[in-house]
Amino acid sequence: MRHPGASEQARAESKQPTGADSVAEQIQDETKGEVIVIDHTGIGVADVARSAIFYDAVLGALGYRRVIELPESDGSDAVGYGLVHPSFWIDRFHPHGVKQHTAFVAHGRSQVDAFYAAGIAAGGTGNGAPGLRSGGYPTGYYAAFVLDPDGNNTEAVFRERG
Fold first, then answer.
1. In the beta sheet, which residues pair with residue 88?
2. CA angle, 107 as apex, 126 and 4 as ends, to 5°?
3. What's the distance, CA 149 to chain centroid?
4. Where do the structural domains in the chain lie, given as residue ranges?
5. What angle do CA 58, 64, 69 make, to 5 degrees?
6. pTM
7. Is the pLDDT reported for residue 86 higher than 80?
8. In the prediction, which pLDDT does 73 show?
9. Superfamily of 38-159 according to CATH
10. 144, 130 in Cβ contact below 8 A?
11. How many Cα atoms are found within 13 Å in the side-chain-facing hemisphere of 152?
């Protein structure tokens, strides 16, 4: 959603994201002409509170936030992350420990770097430091990988345009 007025003009002039709305606008601008086929997804975790600390950190580094908790009082059953609606869930209902892989969009190398640092600081295990990938990856694929507390492989990726 675009917000009319001076703040939009200031954001447009600076070209710098300023929160969830501007990240959403940037995603919308970058995906023009593409069809988004996944509305939301999620993974099971052994301990929602422990995993939420990790995901608050890594997804916060990418501009995402908690948008819903179940139950609303404490989020002990599930937490949904996104910009406006939950697009990624962690919950206690689905099987955990199945070592899933989820890649999150980053909007620059600095976000990939921040994702990796936040993941390590939040108790994750490095599984591939930030850098350009080769050997089957497309040209300009800058990514980092961190294992979450359940061993799921989380990734932040920035696809550089040539």
1. 41, 81
2. 145
3. 16
4. 1-37, 38-159
5. 95
6. 0.79
7. yes
8. 87
9. 2,3-Dihydroxybiphenyl 1,2-Dioxygenase, domain 1 (3.10.180.10)
10. yes
11. 23
